[in-house]
TrEMBL record:
PROSITE patterns, alphabetized: AMP_BINDING (PS00455)
Record-given protein name: Acetyl-coenzyme A synthetase
Cofactor(s) the protein needs: Mg(2+)
Modified residues annotated as N6-acetyllysine in this record: 619
Keyword entries, A-Z: Acetylation, ATP-binding, Ligase, Magnesium, Metal-binding, Nucleotide-binding
Domain AMP-dependent synthetase/ligase: 92-482
Record-annotated membrane-spanning stretches: none
Catalytic activity, as annotated: acetate + ATP + CoA = acetyl-CoA + AMP + diphosphate
BP GO terms, sorted: acetyl-CoA biosynthetic process from acetate
Gene: acsA
Amino acid sequence: MTEQSPALDNLLTESRTFPPSEAFAAKANATADSYAEANEDREAFWARQAERLHWDTKWSQVLDWSDAPFAKWFVGGKLNVAYNCVDRHVEAGHGDQVAIHWVGEPGDTRDITYAELQREVSRAANGLISLGVTARDRVAIQLQMIPEAIIAMLACARIGAMHSVVFGGFSPSALRQRVDDAQAKIVITSDGQYRRGKAAPMKANVDEALAGAESVEKVLVVRRTGEDDVPWNNGRDLWWHELVEAQSDQHTPEAFDSEHPLYILYTSGTTGKPKGILHTSGGYLTQAAYTHHAVFDHKPGEDVYWCTADIGWVTGHSYIVYGPLANRVTQVVYEGTPNTPHEGRHWEIIQTYKVSLYYTAPTLIRTFMKWGADIPAKYDLSSLRVLGSVGEPINPEAWMWYREHIGGNRCPIVDTWWQTETGSIMISPLPGVTHTKPGSAQRPLPGISAKVVDDAGNEVGKGGGGYLVLDKPWPGMLRGIWGDDERYRETYWSRFSEQGYYFAGDGAKYDADGDVWLLGRVDDVMNVSGHRISTTEVESALVSHPTVAEAAVVGATDPTTGQGIVAFVILRGDVAEDQARGDAAIQELRNHVSKEIGPIAKPRQIMVVPELPKTRSGKIMRRLLRDVAENREIGDVTTLADSSVMDLISSGLKSGSDE
Ligand code: WT7
C-alpha cells in the first residue's frame, strides 16, 4: 500500500450522512430489497435485468464461468445492440422523442429524435457495408463530441463490426499504436474540431498517424469546421457526408450472439503498451442499461440527462451511448470545454434544456469551485434531481460543494466507482435508497460483489484497508485484452489467483459502517483529471528524447486534477551545458511528451536531477520522489543503494512548469 496518499486517511472520519427525501424514495427506480434479491440468486437477478432488452433469441444459460477468467453471459442469446438502443424505441411509438440535444461549442445546436437517429445510423451502417466492412472488422474512430461520433459507434454495433474509439486529444503516434494493435480497416475522423473558441485541425494529425499503416483501407472524414485546405489522400479518403447521404435510410439489423465482440477500448496499464480492453454485447448492454436506470433513477420521457464525459473514454461508451440509449434517454451532448465562451456554460445548458440528471468528474467540480459559487448561482438549476461523479475519489469538500451549490441541497449524489475493464458502474449509492456519505462510493450495487482484502487475500474488517477485488464475475466485465490472453490473466487474475479474485489495482478501505472508500491506484498508474496514464508510458516518451538519459515519473497530489505528473530526468552528456540551456530545455521536454502521447500526459513539472533513487536491485523508489514532488520531508531511505542520492537530488533541483 505504499502508493497511497496519507492525506486520504484523514477523510475516513467522515460521519455526515444524507438520507433521501421521502418524495424521492417513493418514486425511485431502485429499491432497498434489490440487494437481498440479488444476493439470493445473482444469476436470476441479472437475467431479470437482461429482460429489459430485446432479444431475438433468448439465452439458454445465464453465466458460463467454466473457462474462467473468460466469462460468457446469456449463453446462446442473440440480440442487436443498436436495435436495442434505437429502433425498438421507434417501434414502440417514441420516434418523435428527442434522443440527443446536441450543443456545439460555437453555439450551433441540433436536436435528433429517435426516428432521425434510426435513419442516420442505418445510412451509416449501409455506408460501412458499401466499403466492405463486415462483422468483427475493426473501425477506429477519432472524433470530437459531435453526433457523428455516436452515429458511427452505433453503425458499427449494428453490423457487428467492432469500434475502437481513440480520444481526440491523443497524439498521432498514440493513434497509430492503437490502429496497428487493432488492425483497423477503417478510420473515422473529422476535418477539425472547435476547442476554446478556435478551430483546430484534426485530419492532418490522422494523416501523420496513418502514414504507412497497412491495415487501413479507407478514412472517413466528417466535415465540422469546414476549412478549405483539408489534406486529402485520394483513393483512401472519403467525406462522411458524401458516403452516407448516398445511402438508403433503411437497414435491417442482424441479431448477433450475446458474446459477439462490441468494442475495443485502449487504456493505460503499468507497462508502456496500452491494453485493448475487449467488451462484448449482451452482458455489457444489460449492466450498462440496468446501472443507468438504477444509479441515475432515469425515467424515460421525463428526465433530461447529461453526462459530460468524452466518447474517447469508457464513461462516454457506457453512459452516453449504450446504457442511456438502451433506456430511451433524452440527453444533452456538448461539444466543447466548460469555460467557452464563459465559465457558466454548463449551468446555462442545464437551465436551457432543464437537465435533471448530471454526471461529471471530481476534477471538473474542483475547477467549478475555483471559478466560484457565484457563477452557478446566476442560473436556474432547479431541474436537477440526481448528481453523479466518476473517475477518481471525490474529496468530501468537493462533494459538499457539489451538493450545495449545484444540487441545492436536494439532489442525491452518486459517487460511482468502476473502470474501463468493468464496463459499467460497480460500487455506488442508489438514489432514493442509500444514505449518502461525502467521499465514499459506499457499497457494491445489487448483483455485484466486491471486497477489500489484505496481501494474503483475506477480507479485512471494518476500519481496515487493503486492495479492492471483485470476487464474482459480472455481466459487463471485460472479456480479455485484445490479442493477449496471457496479459489478461497476468494483469487481473494473478495477484489473487488462489482465490480467483479480479484485482482492480485500487487501494480501498472499509469505514466503521462497512462502507467502501476508494484510495487511489496501488500500481504505477496515475490518475490525472480522471484519466489513466501509466508512469512507464511517460518515462518512455521522455527517454525517447535525445537529451534524456533516464527518467522517473510520479503522480503527485494536485488540488484540481487529483494527481499531476511530475518527472525527474537525468540528462545525457554535458549536464552543465544542458542546465545552462535551462527552462527552454525543460519546456521542450514537456512538449515532447505532449507530442508523443497527447496533451493530457504533459508533465506538470520536470526536475533535472543528477541521480535517481534506486534500491540495490535497481528499482526506482518512486515513494521518495513523490515526497520531493509533494514538498514533504523525505521518507525512509535505508533501502537505497546509495543513501546520499536524495541529498543530491534535493540540493541541485532545476525544474520547470507552467505555473
Ligand atoms: C480508475 C479507472 C470509470 C470511468 C472513468 C475512469 C479510478 C474511477 C472512481 C471513483 C475513486 C475512481 C480508479 C479506477 N476511479 N471512478 N468513483 N472513486 N476512484 O475509468 O480510466 O478505466 O480508470 O479510475 O482508480 O481504477 P478508467
